[in-house]
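User: Fold this, then the next.

Assistant: Folding the first:
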Amino acid sequence: MALTIKQIITILKQVTYVGNLTQVRAGDRAFHLYPSIEVTRPQPVGNTTDPQLRTNDEIFQVKIFVRFSRELGEEYELLNTNEIKVREALNSQPLQTGQFFFQTETWDRTQTKDVHGVESTLRVMFREIVGTEDGTVVGGGSTLQLGQVVVDLIGNANADDGINHSELWDDLAKRFPIPDGNVGVRFFEYAWTMEDYDNIQAIIDARSYVPAIFVQSNGDEENLTVLAVRQRVQQTFAGLKTSTIQMEVQG
């Protein structure tokens, strides 16, 4: 979920603004200080639920109030500088306490009614996604430790587990499958970086089994012994470059 109004105000108070702007406080106020910043939460958390997932949307606003006392070009230049400072301060650290799924930021400027000035509003929306049923797990926030390499997983984490067997035939051509042990193949997708890719490729080139820990978003851990066999890199024109690790699980 999003940080509290008090926490957001603490972040914004650490910034040095221009144009005599020093006041940062909680809103909405019946009477505004000029210049000042007010942080508000305009509506309660909304959600959308289907049989599998529940999506929670939370919104807060940062409003900059300015009374014009200079040439308009200078006023808007100062306002633009302060808007950038607000955005940079909020983007300098996570504004959610849980897993990041989706965030939007939109600016809007309107003329103030009581004075000759402007009200600049930054509207920030966060989205949290959780399973509808207790015990279900959403993929976001999962990690994989392969040997000493730890990567944050995105996209798919697929498993193909089963039992291997040999086949025996009698004189009447009747087949008898003989179980040989458990087999499994796992696929994990992560955001490609040269360092992670090279480190994982070194494990593949070593051609030996290594310990792996798959940690899901709810904290559940799965300890495996795996043989990493290949990586498949994918990149689209406007998409994130990713790599998918294929590994065989020791039975």
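Now the next one, as you asked:
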Amino acid sequence: MNPNPKIRFAIIASWTARSTSILSFLLLLHVMFKFLNKEELGIWFIIGQLGSFNNLLDFGFSAIVTRRIAILSVDKILNKDELATIISTSKFVFRFLSISTMFIFLLIGLLVIPIIHLQNTKITSVILSSVIVSVGYGILTWNGLWSCLLIGMGWNGWDALFQSVINILIVITQCIVLTWFHGGLVSLAIVSTAGSIGLRYIILNFLKGKETILLSVNRPINIVVIRPLLLPAFKNWLTTLGAFFIFKTDQIFISTFCGVSQVPEYTAVQQVYSCLYNGSVAFSASANPHVCRLWAEKRIHEVHKIFIKCSYYGLMVISFGSIIMLTSGNDLLYIWLGPGHAAPNLLLVIFSITWILEVNHVTVAVFSRATDHEEYSMWSLAAGLLNILFCLLFIKRFGIIGVALSTCLAQLLTNNWYVVLHGFRKLSLPPISFISFVGAPMLLYLLLSLTLANVSKAVISRISGSALGVPVSIFVTVMITTIFILFKSKRPNN
């Protein structure tokens, strides 16, 4: 079966979901900046960052179970009994992980809240909101099995659409609560937790309609089936732990050394790049289950073709966003967040370099790991520990610039080069193919777009005022991007 239609659907669905999620997030952030004080904003961003810790609390189990289901689903009739056994055993595992998640988040809240200095926010509302959010994260972990089954059985794309619908409903409700009812942290936490319950209901009912036969087969719990997955899951968990240390500790360092009031602006810019990153890796993430099947069937040339396309378009998205931020970032922040909210130009440069290289190596890692290969855990962990070390060295002297620089340097010294070279070897992909079809065109695109966008903005601003400079530079970047996309569509790849 040709996987391309399913990959295209998954990419379109993922992009649609991410676009609506990004727009709804930008709306929520705009409302939050208006109706919450800086301390409340900082606390909510910290809670959100700790939520990323939720990815650690399944101990790598979700990714490995998804991969195993994808491989077995190549012939789901023949492997029906093994699939049913994995599902029944995983139910027990995810229930245990769900309860553990709730208690761990409660413990983290009790440890983190006392060290945060608050002047305008009640400590009781912070504690209560952290408790409610802990319950919500436990429910999300409980949903994990059904997300694994949905993606592993080839229904990837639907998970993104369901998540998008829930996210939109959550954001709309949170905006109403903030604007009409003058709610605070507790109200935001309640709405967020209700969304986790709604997501579980939607996914489970979808699977009952699509995988009736598989879900109707009952098998007893058999831990023996899970044992071969434990070592890959542990390696996956170490990789995720390293990523957490790299990208999810910034707010903790800033709030501790620079004050909670410094968190919102940094987080706003970081979230813009994070949204661009999510849109960029949507290509490789959507192809992941199908790459698992293609690799199992020894269709390596097809894997190479899909990788080149995913890498090209993924880097195109993050490069396009970075160019917009570098040429017009502070103008857009002024429109979005209002006066008094700006980012240092050096911060935008560091973020752009960091996230472009991140998309590049993560795309390689996704394809390499789809071959059931988990070998990046030590490098990811080393990058995370280096990031923490650099933060401690740089933050007192350079402030938030030092935090961003720490992440960039830690990645440059580890993942940015090792994952790419090792991944090419694992995929049997000649580096010259990547340079020819992806690397060289992207470098040309970046240099050309940055130069023309800056020149056009400067010229138009001098002639007609600064108001027209931003849209003209964005238009120029869009036109160059369109040319490169059309060039790629006409050019045969390897």
